[in-house]
Amino acid sequence: MKRITFITFFAFTLLITGRGMAGETITIAGDPCSAPLAKELGSAFTKKTGIHVDVSSFSCQAGIDHATEGKADIGVNTKNELSSDLQGTDVTHTVIAKSPIVLIVNKKNPVKNLTYEQVQGIFSGKIKNWKDVSDTDMEIKNVMLMPCVTHAMSQQAALYGEDIAKIIPEKKGNPSTNTNILVAENEGAIGQQIYGYESKDVKVLAIDGLLPDKKTLPVKYKFYQDYNVVTRWKPQGKVKEFIDFALSDEGISIIKSMKHIPVNQ
């Protein structure tokens, strides 16, 4: 009798404290631009609730497709015009943050800041050498490995010139990681990266003297994407609990630690 009472009390304790039952899992499908934040949020959520969060990384749109097709509980990605991609009135779309995009260069590159016009010139191919924006004579080589990021930058700055010099990795891999590696290995390289994903081996450039933060983005610093959370149906149960956690003070703290800008819901 005492054993039954203890088990009942333990189960009740799990219920009132919000601890998850063994075997509970939330599946999240993302991409290299969105998976890192999802993993950090998932790890903290698991620690808080006991519900395991399994984050898988695919191509940019695949994460959202997995969610809308019922292959994952949640799909995440970074894209500004996502709403037009969603089919069906039952799909729920929540933006939990802004994901800033920054330009990174080799640490030996003396350039610390580019004007908006200079960024346009580099992307369009009108500026092909660093001597046009500094005292250093080096060919500018573009690292553009993340489709979602490059698409956003082409819309927000300038269309890419057909003859701009590019650096491509010899082998396919995580595009965010490869961007850091190629920029760190090539003195004249410039890469496009999600802010917070840059490695310690590269340098982040200011644009018009600004870096992205809650004061500058999006009015003054315009390079960013929405961090989208998508579910096939209206979120319920553990899925709703995870999204609510991402929007809570604890979730916002994690978002800020990843250099994303929380959205006031």
Question: What does it look like?
Answer:
The protein is α/β, with parallel strands linked by helices and 265 residues long. It folds into two domains: 2-99 and 226-262, D-Maltodextrin-Binding Protein, domain 2 (3-Layer(aba) Sandwich); 100-207, 3-Layer(aba) Sandwich (D-Maltodextrin-Binding Protein, domain 2), CATH 3.40.190. The protein has eight helices and ten strands. Strands 1, 2, 3, 4, 5, 6, 7, 8, 9 and 10 form a ten-stranded mixed sheet that branches. α2 (35-49) links the parallel β1 (25-30) and β2. The longest helix is centred in the first third of the chain and has 16 residues, at 2-17. It is elongated. The model is unreliable at 1-18 (pLDDT under 50).
List how many beta strands DSSP finds: 10
- The number of helices is 8
The poorly predicted ranges are 1-18
Class per helix and strand makeup? alpha/beta
Topology of this protein?
Layout (H helix, E strand, L loop, with lengths): L1 H16 L7 E6 L4 H15 L2 E6 L4 H7 L5 E5 L13 E15 L6 E2 L1 H9 L16 E3 L3 H10 L18 H11 L3 E6 L7 E6 L16 E8 L5 H10 L2 H9 L3 E2 L3
Give a summary of the structure in a few sentences.
The chain has 265 residues and is of the alpha/beta class.
Structural features:
ten-stranded mixed β-sheet, 8 helices, disordered N terminus, single chain, alpha/beta, D-Maltodextrin-Binding Protein, domain 2, 265 residues
